Amino acid sequence: MGLASEMLVKFWGVRGSIPTPCIKNMGTGGNTSCLELRLPGGEVVIVDGGTGVRPLGVALMQEAAGKPTDLHLFLTHFHWDHIQGLPFFQPLYKKENRVTFYSMKSPEETSETLEGQMSIPYFPVDFRFLPAQRNFVDVSNRTVQFGETTVRSFPLNHPQGCLGYSFTHGDRKIVFASDLEHGDPEFDRGLLEVARDADILIYDAQFTSEEYEHRQGWGHSTWLEATRVAKLAGVKKLLLFHHDPAHDDETLHVILSNARQQFPETYLATEGETFAV
Predict the structure, then answer these.
(1) pLDDT at 4 over 70
(2) Phi/psi zone of residue 92: left (φ > 0), alpha (ψ -120 to 50 degrees), beta?
(3) How far, in Å, CA of 269 to CA of 247, rounded?
(4) Which residues of 93-119 are buried (b: 16+ CB within 10 A; e: fewer)?
């Protein structure tokens, strides 16, 4: 997936709230939140386990060709659109594999929460008995180091809490900030500090400004606020993420056109696309 000296991010799920597998959305993608990062040291890092993690798991197992895999999965929070693909994540079904889950909860709470969506009567396989080795790490207010790459978590304004993540390698930085609602000064300052001079900022842009007037308190932001943050932080590329289920490809491209008038280096997060830093 590219040169070993690069950080690469590939989108496997870009939709918010619920999967939207319909033709008019397929240009951008209908799977819920999931990103794959390949770090310069060769580590495979995943952010979120929405429905996009299912095809990612298939691809990772094909790449491994029977060899053990060691994966690192960072969860932003536990709303269903960010974990609902995990029961179908193939690496969890091979005993040779190891998957480490990083989240804002204690190891016990994370395990119990993930067990919940795979318990009777919701799913036929019990999370506790999955063959892969599973480890759990509370990453709140701390950093994780992979060789020369530092992963930092930071809090976002979202119902029941949420973490954003920054990935820094030397002078290169990718920042993932979804799900979040703007307007709280403390959270806004924190995000701006983390995002400053980022090569890529991935930002929750679920609503238009008009839609947001009727959705305050829902925990999401707008494309216009995304461009404002990108300008203030001096980022190089802005990727609009967590697309609303009601926004088809045509609507999203109108949003993109409007956003580029405010911040020219704006792109739509799109399933299957890879960006290198």
Answers:
(1) no
(2) alpha
(3) 13
(4) ebeebbbbbbbbbeeeebbebbeeebe
The DSSP annotation for 92-146 comes to: GG-TT-EEEEEESS-HHHHHHHHHHTTSTTT-SS-GGG-SSEEEEEE-TT-EEEE
Contact (CB, 8 A) for 206 and 241? no
pLDDT tens per residue, range 144-174? 999 999 999 999 999 999 999 999 999 999 9
Q: From CA 136, how far away is CA 197, in angstroms rounded? A: 31
CA distance 54 to 248: 22
Strands 162-169 and 149-156: what pairing? antiparallel
* Sign, CA torsion 212/217/218/223: positive
Burial of 229 (0-12, 13-18, 19+ CB in 10 A): buried
* pLDDT band of 1, cuts 50, 70, 90: very low
Strands of the 133-138 sheet, one edge to the other: 133-138, 98-103, 70-74, 44-47, 34-38, 8-13, 274-276
**Residue pLDDT, tens place only, 40-64:** 999 999 999 999 999 999 999 999 9
The closest of 209, 189, 198 to 262, measured between CA atoms, is 209
